[in-house]
User: Fold this.
Amino acid sequence: MTQVRLDEVREALGLETSEEAFLLDEMAQSASWVVRQAMADRTIQAVQGGEQTPQVLEHAALSSLKNSVHIELSSQEAMGLVELLSSAPPPGAPLSKTLAALERISGPFELHMSSSK
Assistant:
């Protein structure tokens, strides 16, 4: 978000320049909620101004979340993945930060195993 847009939002909400960090945190929480709704295949609608008909929030990034790929592994495949991951070096700081951010948005990661195959 550019500083100009950030200032417009801050001013529209009646916040002071010193409250910019608070505003960014609130915006991040709102964006996180939107992402969680998209990941759960929920539609977000809003009515703007005096309009009667709700408009659906659409964005390419949100659409890609709805079309996410789910992978099921057999027990043997899962054990191979566990073995591979346990022998890998720990992730660096940038990857750790990214994974932590994803976990905050989507909740804990889960590995689902199936007994078939």
Observations:
- The chain has a mean pLDDT of 76.
- Helices lie at 3-12, 20-39, 60-66, 75-87, 93-106.
- Strands lie at 45-46, 55-56, 73-74, 113-114.
- Residues 1-68 form one domain.
